[in-house]
Amino acid sequence: MSPTTVAEHRKRVAELVGLMPVLQLPLDECLGLVLAADVVAPLSLPPFDNSAMDGYAVRAAELAGEGPVKLPVADDIPAGRTEISPLEPGTVQRIMTGAPVPPGADAVIQVELTDGGTETVTINGKVRPGANIRTAGDDVQKGDPVLTAGTVLRPSTVGLASALGLPELPVRRRPRVLVLSTGSELVEPGRPLQPGQIYESNGTMLAAAVRDAGGTAVQLKFVPDDVEEFHRALTPYLGSVDVIVTSGGVSAGAYEVVKDALAGHDVKFTKVAMQPGGPQGSGRYEGVPVLTLPGNPVSAQVSFEVFVRPALLASMGHTQVERPTARATVTSPLTSPAGKTQFRRGLYDPSSGQVVTPVGGPGSHLLSALALSNCLIEVPEDVTEVAAGAEVVVRHLQ
Ligand code: AMP
Ligand code: MG
Predict the structure, then answer these.
(1) φ, ψ dihedrals at 40, nearest 5°
(2) Of the residues 184, 187, 198, which should be mutated to test ligand 1's pocket, given the most ligand atoms within 8 Å of the CB?
(3) In the prediction, which pLDDT does 85 show?
(4) pTM value surpassing 0.70
(5) Last residue of some domain: 315, 350, 376?
(6) Which of 225, 247, 251, 299 for mutating ligand 1's site (highest number of atoms within 8 Å of CB)?
(7) Ligand 1 contact, 295 CB (< 6 A)
(8) Is 116 found in the same domain as 229?
(9) How far is the CA of 292 from the centre of ligand 2 (A)?
């Protein structure tokens, strides 16, 4: 059987995960989500002509003559005032930034050019008509298509929606991802470790990676290599999660709990032509998409990067699902197995002429090397040796 290519498996995973449903979410839950429909402005911004300064609403022509002008202050308009009387000729109204400009006024003179009076005011300057007035619709016209479907919502875009009076936006919701680690050797950090046991790391790492990709992670405590326990652990979550991501128990040894437990289900186990992260499984468990990642921590995390992260991003409606890449010169030689895409861990330094230094060897247990790296160095399938100084493609991890 010829191995599955990275591209084939990526496609299969993305299809399995599919698209999340669209719902209206309150603005404070929308950050980082993708707008699912165009937004047409329900009002103009600013909604009314308002003052850009603290000062006095005036008729510009009344200040046009020589010398200071002394005028009665007919009214006081703080921001938020809703009833505004027209500006009578020969008077001014004191006005604050953001307050509505009274009908009849055609300019605002800033308080700094006056004596600041409240009964009468002496004005020592001139303004042109329109000065210091923010006119209605300056920023957005009612009916404008202000935000388009596909926009990734940022602080400024949720701010704009709020300014337009929209309490919610239509977005694709976050996928809920159940993360389950398997292995009888695993112990929760904080508990004592017996000889032969190790502290669990994949669950914590993959749940963090799910959140980093924008999903909601439900991290299940790991299960031992026991098929019954595997089923028992998943059952309560089947109605509430969109994707199940497991780690461990899928390689060629005995006690491969994930393989054994999913044997009768619609799950395909395959070897993907990559290193690390060859053994992969994907399919449905009781109807829920399930992705089974290998157990070695670097394999699990690289698999997540290559397969799961893009699928989760796409499920939320992101069109940009790839990490940014760059070309860099590698500082030391690399070897890579024939016929496999290799993802080595590296430290990319853009400041010193786009150089990447491999961190650690190819071993998929070298978690600290992954933790200390900031990119993956991608060695193509047909390349077995990369000389020092050669150009490689790096995939930024942050
Ligand atoms: P497996 O694929 O289950 O045979 O696991 C391969 C290797 O990864 C073994 O050395 C496991 O102990 C280790 N491993 C599996 N799952 C985890 C995990 N959740 N945390 C840390 N190491 C793990
Ligand atoms: Mg295991």
Answers:
(1) -100, 135
(2) 198
(3) 96
(4) yes
(5) 315
(6) 247
(7) yes
(8) no
(9) 12
Six token digits for residue 69? 């002008």
* Tens digits of residue pLDDT in 330-362: 999 999 999 999 999 999 998 878 999 999 999
Q: Same domain, yes or no, for 206 and 300?
A: yes
Residue nearest to atom 10 of ligand 1 (CA): 296
Query: Do residue 157 and residue 195 come from a single domain?
Result: no
**What's the domain count of the chain?**
4
Q: In this model, does residue 71 exceed pLDDT 90?
A: yes
Counting ligands in written order, the one closest to the CA of 365 is: 1
Residue 2 pLDDT greater than 80, yes or no: no
Assess whether the C-beta atom of 197 lies below 6 angstroms from ligand 1. Answer: no
Q: Are residues 340 and 222 in the same domain?
A: no
For ligand 1, whether the C-beta of 281 sits within 6 Å is no
Q: Give the residue, by CA position, lying nearest to ligand 1 atom 8.
A: 296
First to last CA, the chain: 36
Residue 394, number of CB atoms within 10 A of its CB:
24
CA 307 to chain centre: 17
* CATH classification of the domain holding 70: 2.170.190.11
For 18, the token pair is: 């599919």
Residue 125 to residue 110: CA distance in whole angstroms = 9
Q: How far apart are CA 249 and CA 275, in angstroms?
A: 17
- For residues 162 and 107, membership in a common domain is answered with no
Q: Considering 106, 134, 162, which residue would you say is the last residue of a domain? A: 134
- Domain range holding 118? 50-134
